[in-house]
């Protein structure tokens, strides 16, 4: 009898560990080692939408940076399609919380920026082709008619749509999204959640989405990965089954949604308290975490 082999994961994290050297300060002249992630193992299937939640300082953004190839793990391996990630690649696109648009470029020109080099197919597109592709993806994110607007003429939600269109335009396989809707008002945030699900269904991208919102994580994700307080460890993965989210009803009011939201909350609540008591904060680019407690001269936490 032939046994069908399991398909290769699109993304595979294998026993990932990451530490930072905390720069010396007057209070801590020797500096120290800060463990951000410890023993993270996770497989993500092609075309899957997975969300990631965890307390502040649990290493969520560090994990995304590793996947993007912006930094390397100290232990373990990051694989995409079975190949080790050694740096940034056009198969992965990152959407940040900040829009990072060029203020002197129109929406279409911002989207076309990522198309100005050689494409994934090895071909360099003409200006006309880049403009056409930019307009295509602006239409996909619901911004048809706003191609010639500058960032200062767009609302926050529209700017984030431009950022998403820019990431999609060079057609990566994977979207890595770091709290992209966090700065938006509640109504705009819900609208963009709907748009993102529609885009995901129409493009089949593999999406890893970081959020602090349990509700957002449950609403968007097929699975929710819950990280512990620092050092971030994979505490549990929660499978989400809400049926078809594209209907007209309020999915968030459904019994299944409430139950699964509470399940994630139960897993996360204690970790948030631990992080708060320990004074954990988001790790900065220099490896420091400003409000983390440091040992004092008598050996007790300062």
Structure description:
By secondary structure, the protein is an alpha/beta fold. It folds into 2 domains: 7-91 and 172-302, P-loop containing nucleotide triphosphate hydrolases (Rossmann fold, 3-Layer(aba) Sandwich), CATH 3.40.50.300; 102-171, no CATH class. It is 31% helix and 21% strand. It contains 7 helices and 10 strands. Strands 6-7-8-3-9-10 form a 6-stranded mixed β-sheet, sandwiched between helices. The protein is globular. Residues 291-302 have low confidence and may be disordered.
Summarize the structure.
The chain has 302 residues and is of the alpha/beta class.
* CATH superfamily (homologous) name of the largest domain: P-loop containing nucleotide triphosphate hydrolases
Strand order of the largest sheet: 6-7-8-3-9-10
Mean pLDDT: 85
- Tell me the radius of gyration: 21 Å
Counting structural domains, the number is 2
Low-confidence stretches: 291-302
Q: Hey, roughly how much beta strand do the residues contain? A: 15-25%
